[in-house]
């Protein structure tokens, strides 16, 4: 589920910040200008999206705080996989104590292959998607570090809310919320969909999209979950 600011044309604003030159594996994302006051996550953290313009790829990264022009990523660097690790599973004692579903995984041993945590079994074990080819015990991996080297052509944008919903199910509701500093009204687009690897085979859901506005009193949006009667 995500809630993003829009451009004048009505598209999601993916040019919010221009990046600076940084090396892959960095534990910060540094923009070329100060971060706006109404960007959420200043002290409690949030999620940013890194747009690698030359490769036409987008990465999701969780950050713990931001200050001035710097997002400090909720990162762990250079941990080692243990017995039980395979292409879809990572086992590492205590490595995932503070992890969330959706956190980025970078396997240094496998040519810096990128994946994301799809489910957390314990603080010692997670499932990932997509699979990392040939991943095994003894590999070196990072969590939520800069996945690629950035240039001044790359962009960063910050969804107001960007989460994998884990509190509810297809049969019961859940909720998420964020707090931000109000400066002016923000036109947003709310999008919700089932992740590819978690779509129910019996009750697949249609994607949900709605445009709305965050005002001085905030925004509440009830996502409508409609069954997809065509998908089989």
User: Major beta sheet, specifics?
Assistant: 6 strands, antiparallel
Shape: globular
Strand order of the largest sheet: 2-13-4-5-6-3
- How many beta strands in the DSSP annotation? 16
Q: What's the alpha carbon Rg, rounded to whole Å?
A: 18 Å
| Tally of separate helices | 0
Strand content: 25-35%
Oligomer: single chain
What portion of residues is helical? under 10%
Uncertain runs are: none
The arrangement of helices and strands along the chain is EEEEEEEEEEEEEEEE
Q: What is the CA-CA span between the terminal residues? A: 23 Å
The structural class is: mainly beta
What number is the mean pLDDT?
90
Provide key terms for this protein.
232 residues, mainly beta, Elongation Factor Tu (Ef-tu), domain 3
Describe the structure.
With 232 residues, the chain is an all-beta fold. Among the domains are: 74 residues; 68 residues, Elongation Factor Tu (Ef-tu), domain 3. 0% of the residues lie in helices and 35% in strands. It contains no helices and 16 strands. The strands form three sheets. Strands 2-13-4-5-6-3 form a six-stranded antiparallel sheet, with no helix packed on it. The model has no long low-confidence stretch (mean pLDDT 90).
């Amino acid at each position: 589920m995500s809630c993003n600011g829009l451009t004048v044309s009505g598209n999601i604003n993916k040019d919010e910040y221009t990046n600076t030159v940084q090396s892959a594996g960095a534990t910060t994302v540094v923009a070329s200008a100060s971060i706006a006051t109404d960007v959420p996550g200043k002290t409690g953290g949030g999620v940013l999206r890194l747009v690698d313009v030359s490769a036409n790829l987008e990465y999701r990264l969780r950050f713990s705080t931001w200050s001035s022009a710097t997002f400090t990523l909720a990162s762990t660097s250079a941990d080692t996989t243990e017995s039980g690790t395979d292409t879809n599973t990572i086992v590492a004692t205590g490595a995932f104590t503070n992890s969330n579903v959706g956190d980025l995984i970078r396997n240094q041993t496998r040519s810096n292959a990128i994946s994301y945590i799809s489910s957390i079994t314990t603080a010692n074990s997670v499932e990932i998607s997509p699979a990392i080819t040939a991943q095994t015990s003894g590999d070196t991996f990072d969590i939520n570090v800069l996945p690629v080297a950035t240039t001044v052509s790359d962009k960063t944008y910050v969804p107001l809310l960007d989460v994998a919903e884990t509190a509810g199910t297809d049969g019961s509701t859940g909720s998420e919320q964020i707090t931000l500093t109000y400066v002016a009204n923000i036109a947003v687009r709310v999008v919700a969909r089932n992740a590819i690897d978690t779509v129910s085979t019996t009750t697949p859901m249609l994607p949900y999209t709605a445009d709305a506005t965050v005002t001085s009193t905030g925004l509440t949006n009830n996502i409508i979950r409609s069954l997809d009667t065509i998908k089989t």
